[in-house]
Design goal:
This protein has 9 helices and no strands. The chain has about 230 residues and is an all-alpha fold.
Length: about 230
């Protein structure tokens, strides 16, 4: 096993980089991290629309969320792969296509985290902000969102873990992420696929397990701080 890791460890980590585009585990982290970072502002807007009293905003956001949450990422990925060139008249790299699919798909899940975070606050927070003369959007920006975003941190970490695992599906369009790299190694090491995929499993398990522990620790820290604040009051 040590010889196998010495031979292929770097390939698992970065794919063919620097001779070609970065891939492997680094490519997986880039897809998940950049995808969630880019879709975050979109998720904030959709989440706010999901709590809006304006029916046009609420209905539009609800359709977006339920439509995307009701279909698998694979379908969004294939739509992006085949439809984007048809709609735009330009070809895109598999990596760009996968990134676009992840941004669109994850925006629905992130938006629900935002909605739950906002609605999880006591209604008196908004009422108090409005009573001192703040408008709705000003109260949302200066009072509600700062508190809600802190409460959302554990859910955002868990969503990142989920997205890291979900990126494994993008290998089917040729993106050189972790699963694609493992498949390439398996094509070479045809005699022992179990070893190849056990190593692959550990590359997913170890960081995801660590992030899950971090999420739990952050959640406990937030609850402890809120309990202390309530006790002081």
């Amino acid at each position: 096993m040590l010889g196998f890791l010495e031979k292929y460890g770097l390939f698992y980590l970065t794919g063919g980089w620097p001779a070609s585009e970065i891939g492997g585990f680094a490519g997986t982290l880039i897809l998940a991290g950049v995808g969630l970072a880019v879709c975050f502002p979109l998720a904030i807007l959709i989440g706010l629309a999901r709590t809006s009293q304006r029916h046009a905003f609420f209905i539009s956001a609800t359709i977006w969320v339920y439509a995307l949450r009701g279909i698998p990422l694979l379908m969004v990925l294939l739509w992006s792969y085949f439809l984007l060139p048809e709609l735009t008249g330009h070809s895109f790299t598999p990596f760009t296509t996968a990134m676009a699919a992840i941004i669109v798909y994850e925006s629905a899940f992130m938006a629900e985290i935002v909605r739950a975070g906002i609605q999880g606050l006591p209604k008196g927070q908004m009422e108090a902000a409005r009573s001192i003369g703040l408008g709705y959007w000003q109260a949302m920006r200066e009072v509600i969102l700062p508190q809600a975003l802190v409460n959302m941190i554990p859910s955002f970490v868990n969503q990142f873990v989920s997205t890291v695992k979900a990126t494994s599906i993008v290998y089917i369009i040729g993106v050189s992420e972790l699963t694609f790299v493992a498949q390439q190694i398996n094509n070479v090491e045809v005699g022992n696929p179990i070893r190849t995929y056990v190593v692959l499993a550990f590359f997913y398990f170890i960081p995801c397990w660590g992030l899950s522990l971090l999420s739990r620790k952050i959640e406990h820290s937030i609850k402890a701080r809120q309990s202390s604040a309530a006790a002081v009051r």
